[in-house]
Write a structure and sequence with these properties.
single chain; alpha/beta; Glutaredoxin; seven-stranded mixed beta sheet; 27% helix
């Protein structure tokens, strides 16, 4: 009986896709203590394979500045993921693309409170006017930010 159990268990494990065993992508979010949209975005990231540790801070501007986020690209939260910074509501697929391709940038930013973007809680509202949002790539060196991607895809 034990042999049958081992064979069945092994077969089930081999039949499972590898992503079932993939580790979550770890990140740390620094956010204003009174902002609740940041927690909605963290939950969205977690549904997409991330594990986000949330740290409330009243010094968010200092955190973003220390991490090299240009003032014009700062949002309501700053996330450290691997060696990169994610500022604002960057879609999860774009964050994963950055982590996979490992570009020579400091991070990505989609600042502000874009309506209809995943993670803002409005992405599933019927009749929501679809806008295109631009994700910007930035570097600590003070260079001009560049377009990284758009949402939704055209």
């Amino acid at each position: 009986m034990k042999t049958v159990y081992r064979i069945v268990t092994t077969a089930v494990l081999l039949a499972m896709p590898l992503p079932a065993f993939a580790d979550a992508i770890m990140g740390t979010m620094y956010k204003n203590p009174s902002c609740t949209c940041c927690e909605t975005y963290a939950a969205y990231l977690e549904k997409n394979g991330f594990k986000i540790n949330i740290i409330p801070t009243n010094d968010l501007d200092q955190v973003a500045a220390k991490e090299g986020v240009p003032a014009q690209l700062r949002g309501c939260h700053t996330i450290k993921i691997s060696n990169y910074i994610v500022e604002g509501f960057v879609p999860a697929d774009q964050v994963k693309k950055m982590l996979t391709t490992m570009p020579t940038i400091t991070g990505l930013s989609m600042p502000g409170m874009p309506m209809g973007i995943p993670g803002m809680g409005f992405d599933a509202m019927p009749g929501m006017a679809q806008q295109t949002y631009t994700t910007m790539a930035f570097t600590k060196g003070g260079g001009e930010p560049t377009v990284y991607d758009t949402y939704p895809k055209s």
